[in-house]
């Protein structure tokens, strides 16, 4: 369709948004999620549908961990949807900028997560308009991407033997890169877990570790130095995400690469990290930074600084993003967290033999199972009576 339009410039392709709706859902991860700073009770997914004047529907999704789904849904429903009715999806920059300008006084976070759901739906419509998967609209840099297993299991009763058994299972599934959580109260336990997993993975394997902002800057420098001997692929979110100077100091003091970005919400925040030489691998989350429009800019920004991107979570969407850009590292496959594992897709998207292959359907290729979603529709009243929070 795009080729036909380009060869016949008198043919103008229009696709305007004429209707929209939003719903939110809350359900637990498919397996235990506990790290050094959180014990996750539920994931909340906010799903937007945009209907075009052609009859095509675009679906977008954002998410939260435990808290905020009702706020994001209300922001979209009450304020943002009216702004996009009548707009042409080809003008995705205008749509994104309008939503950003009108919500900027909220700061960063809830508004960018709300914009993301609409923006992803816009890109889904663009794919259907031009009959192309999103990864080709973004550049089509590759047809597939290597994946790593990412587990969220740092519970008190999880033993080293338990961890090693799981690593054996990952190896049997043809994964040679594994990410584990660290941040035990006793650092010697972290060191033992790292040593055992490194031994199990062997010289051909690669180990990544994630702290979820557990350490202070002083702890990170002191403890990070003890991790250099393990030749880790990276250390992720070692300290609070606002501490750019601390990350820069840590990067100067250790050899292990630093990965971060899941707690940042704009390209300006990533730019400050890149300027400070405080990050090695950029982990922008498409749902947190405002959708595909902003994520794509962050990826190119990272490339300008010679950095690779490895987006946080959202496996099925991240697969499209990574195959679109030049500076991709690896796809994160979080145990218990993919739409497929959660039973929310009509057509599962799975990683096979440690390699992810994006859907070639026009758009992002996610076909949500509506009946499965309806079982988990978010109830504000139920949350009010049961919410206790998962942060430690």
From TrEMBL:
SMART domains: MR_MLE. Gene3D superfamilies: Enolase-like C-terminal domain (3.20.20.120), Enolase-like, N-terminal domain (3.30.390.10). GO terms for biological process: amino acid catabolic process; carbohydrate catabolic process. Residues 160-257 form the Mandelate racemase/muconate lactonizing enzyme C-terminal domain. Its cofactor is Mg(2+). Keywords: Magnesium, Metal-binding. Coiled coil: none annotated. The keyword Translocase does not apply. Pfam families: MR_MLE_C, MR_MLE_N. One of its GO terms (molecular function) is hydro-lyase activity. This is Mandelate racemase. It comes from Phyllobacterium endophyticum.
């Amino acid at each position: 369709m795009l080729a036909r339009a380009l060869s016949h410039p008198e043919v103008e392709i229009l696709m305007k948004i004429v209707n929209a709706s939003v719903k939110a859902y809350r359900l637990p991860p498919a397996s235990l999620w506990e790290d050094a700073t959180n014990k996750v009770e539920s994931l909340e997914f906010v799903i937007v549908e945009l209907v075009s004047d052609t009859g095509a529907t675009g679906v977008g999704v954002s998410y939260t961990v435990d808290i905020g789904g009702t706020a994001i849904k209300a922001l979209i429903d009450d304020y943002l949807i009216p702004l996009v009715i009548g707009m042409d999806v080809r003008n995705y920059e205008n749509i994104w900028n309008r939503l950003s300008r009108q919500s900027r006084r909220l700061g960063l976070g809830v508004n960018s997560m709300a914009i993301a759901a609409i923006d992803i739906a816009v890109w889904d419509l663009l794919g259907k308009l031009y009959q192309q998967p999103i990864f080709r609209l973004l550049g089509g840099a590759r047809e597939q991407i290597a994946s790593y297993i990412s587990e969220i299991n740092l519970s008190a009763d999880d033993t080293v033997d338990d961890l090693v058994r799981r690593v054996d299972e990952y190896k049997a599934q043809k994964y040679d890169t594994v990410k584990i959580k660290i941040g035990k109260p006793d650092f010697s336990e972290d060191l033992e877990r790292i040593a055992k997993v490194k031994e199990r993975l062997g010289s051909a394997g690669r180990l990544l570790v994630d702290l979820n902002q557990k350490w202070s800057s002083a702890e990170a420098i002191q403890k990070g130095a003890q991790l250099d001997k393990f030749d880790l692929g990276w250390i992720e979110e070692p300290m609070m995400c606002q501490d750019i100077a601390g990350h820069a100091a840590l990067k100067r003091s250790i050899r292990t690469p630093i990965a971060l970005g899941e707690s940042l919400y704009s390209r300006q925040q990533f730019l400050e990290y890149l300027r400070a030489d405080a990050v090695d691998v950029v982990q922008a989350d498409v749902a947190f930074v405002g959708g595909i429009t902003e994520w794509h800019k962050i990826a190119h920004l990272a490339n300008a600084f010679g950095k690779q991107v490895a987006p946080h979570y959202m496996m099925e969407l991240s697969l499209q993003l990574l195959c679109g850009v030049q500076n991709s590292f690896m796809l994160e496959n979080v145990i218990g967290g993919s739409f497929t594992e959660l039973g929310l897709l009509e057509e599962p998207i799975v990683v096979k033999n440690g390699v992810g292959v994006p859907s070639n359907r026009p758009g992002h290729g996610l076909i949500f199972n509506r009946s499965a979603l309806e079982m988990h529709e978010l109830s504000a009243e139920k949350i009010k009576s049961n919410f206790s929070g998962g942060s430690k």
